[in-house]
Amino acid sequence: MNIITYCDQVSANLERDLGILMLDGENKLIQFESAFYMVDKALEKVKAFLSNYEFTSEEEEVEFFKMKMTEFLKESVYYSELFNMESLKPPGPKKEIKRFYEKELRSIQYFLQSHQNLYNYLLTKKTNQDKIFFLRSAQAPVYKPNLFWHTLDTRYCTVYTLYFARIKGTLALSQYIHHQLKIINGEVVMGTYQKKNPLRWTGKKVELIELVYALKLAGVLNHGRADLKEIALKMGAFFGLNLNDFYRTFTEISTRKKSRTAFLDSMRDQLNNYIDNGDSLR
Fold first, then answer.
1. Which of 154, 187, 220 is the last residue of a domain?
2. 70-87: b (≥16 Cβ within 10 Å) or e
């Protein structure tokens, strides 16, 4: 098995475990701390696999350190920063909480501005510097001097893998803060589309949740960066359903005795039958 496939498997399992962890009603700080350690265990698995692995090409090594390792480290940054931020959040009132989040956003903006070149490289999906940034043998110059880089274990990471993971994790934290500010400002998330949208989900709610997870894992929304909770809330709002309990429902899906993807299997079979019969939709 190549390391890219292995990372995809570890990532899928991590996504599932994080989904099960985030059950409604639990202490959020405990959830964030537990999530951080889940990510850490996943990273240890990837490192153990990497220890005995030889890349087949420079392209494979670049893909691993740019696309795979940065995603695991991004999750680590995200949950670490999220835990630290929420542990410092004032208990209230709403004005103080809003002021706190807005201050955090300003700090994030300052961080992104101080790494503007790398942030632009990430946003524009450039590749011209990939072999300098993501090959361990390249010995790329450090973007900004930092004593920490001298202790970096280059067997498992490059300096720029950490830079990009930090930027990605910070962007994820920014999305979380913006969502919290919407809640404070009373902006309606559920039901936003209900008055305008004539479409209603008339299937089972569990089927929609199955579709939500499939879309997330397929990486087809926001280039794979869409948050699972955001997808669930937006899909639920679009179809007029409350999917706040989607984590709990997914636990039920994962313990099915027969097919755990019953709805997706049914969709596939119906589409194949339709194609085989040569029909045309009107």
1. 187
2. bbbbbbbbbbbbbbebee
